[in-house]
Amino acid sequence: MHSFLITLLECSVSMTVIGIIYMAVTPLLQNRFTAKGRYYAWLVIVIGFIVPFRFHLPVSIISVDTLFSTLGSTDPSNFNPLTAAAFPGITATAFPWLSVAVGVWITGVVLFTAWHMFRHRRLLRLIKRWNENSNDRQALRLLQQLKAELNVTRHVDLQICPAVSSPMLVGLVHPVILLPSNRLSIQALRFILKHELIHLKRKDLGYKLLVFTAAALHWFNPFVYRMAREIAIQCELSCDEAVVMHSDMNNRQQYVEAIINVVRNQSIGRSAFSTSFSDNKLSLKKRVYSIMDTRGKKWGFSLLIVISLAAVGTGVVLQLNSAQPETALPVSSIQAAANEIVSNQEGKDPEGSALPSPVASPVTSPVPSSSPIKEDRPVNELKKEETGAVLREGVGEDVKPNSKPSSFIESTTQSMLPELRESKK
Fold it and tell me: In this predicted model, what pLDDT tens digit does every residue of 332-370 receive, in sequence order?
């Protein structure tokens, strides 16, 4: 899970940068590429958010160390006060930061998904309560005619629902076109049905499901909400473009009037898993300009290739490395060092003077037994050096203790000696 969080964060940062750049140049691209090409270019970015894994080279251009490893929890039982005092660089973290981060992320995903599922189920209950099958033979005949014209083979129902004020397409498995209860002209009905059938043919509901998945995984990233909004606008622009393709200015103007008439009655029951013929008034200006634009444009294959290469190449440019956590010393090493200290202390009398050594002394002149043994250095200083040497041997050569042990080390060692003697016995 630790490596997955690192990969998810790396994916979120890199795809956000690509999305911001693409959004910034979109006003320039709309003069060269079709709305359909710009719409499907966003699909590459969405997939990049969903699939977080990237190919990495041994050396990346930008390499950033993360804090997840240092936030990981260390077993508090490995913490030794003697070692912590002698070696300040070695610490033990008792709070499970990594587990908290994982729990917060999972909680956010669950809450985000539950909220949108609640809204969608509420819309479906509202539709089920008020909808009824359309008995208008002219509308049903027009629907079949448009299905044949657009080569749509899937079965789709046409229903009337007074609870909605804008035509919409719902149902990923069993698609249904919902019409408001107000009377529509035959020309406006033709535009509306063609618009929703194009959504069905292009599987835009499945596209919206992918956008929802990306937003759920990256709920902590504010950009995904802006991205979902921009994709919804591009979806309607590309659908409008398909509706008025090869149409004259008169038909384009009638289509704009049909949209404006529907926008006046704002849609009141939308969810992340439905399409709507009319969006809010903020995108209306863009839709009108796009509908009335008759210039020839490129589809945008080169745009798809550039964004795909950028998404794949993010692993070469950016790599988040896991910082090495600070580890506590093994208990076995600490215990061995402490036992050797006790053994050395037991080899001395309570006064601190050394007991006679069983090895013959190389001194030529005999020392009277009644005279006390003289030491060149104080006993306390020898204890300090001996304690430091044993600890360095138990810890290893990678950790360097302070050159001058502090008085706190001596007091801590002396206070622990009775317990260590008892444990040894």
Answer: 555 566 666 656 655 554 444 444 444 444 444 444 444
Q: Residue 381 is encoded by which pair of tokens?
A: 């200083």
Distance spanning both ends of the chain, measured CA to CA: 44
Retrieve residue 117's tokens: 């599922």
Q: Note whether 39 and 211 are within 8 A (CB).
A: no
- Nearest by Cα to 159 from 145, 147, 175: 175
- Long-range interactions of 366-371: CB distance < 8 A, separation 24+: none
How far apart CA 178 and CA 268 sit, in angstroms, is 13
Closest CA relative to residue 48, chosen from 214, 196, 238: 214
In terms of DSSP bridges, do strands 157-160 and 176-179 run parallel, antiparallel, or are they unpaired?
parallel
**pLDDT tens string 150-194:** 999 999 999 998 888 888 999 988 999 999 888 888 999 999 999
Residue 360: burial class (beta carbons within 10 Å; 0-12, 13-18, 19+): exposed
Q: Which residues neighbour 24 within 8 Å (Cβ) at sequence distance 6 or greater?
A: none
CA distances from 66 to 58, 72, 98, 393 (A): 18, 12, 12, 32
Q: Give the up-direction half-sphere exposure of residue 65: CA atoms within 13 A in the CB hemisphere.
A: 7
Q: How far apart are CA 382 and CA 48, in angstroms?
A: 64
Q: Residue 276: beta bridge partners? A: 168
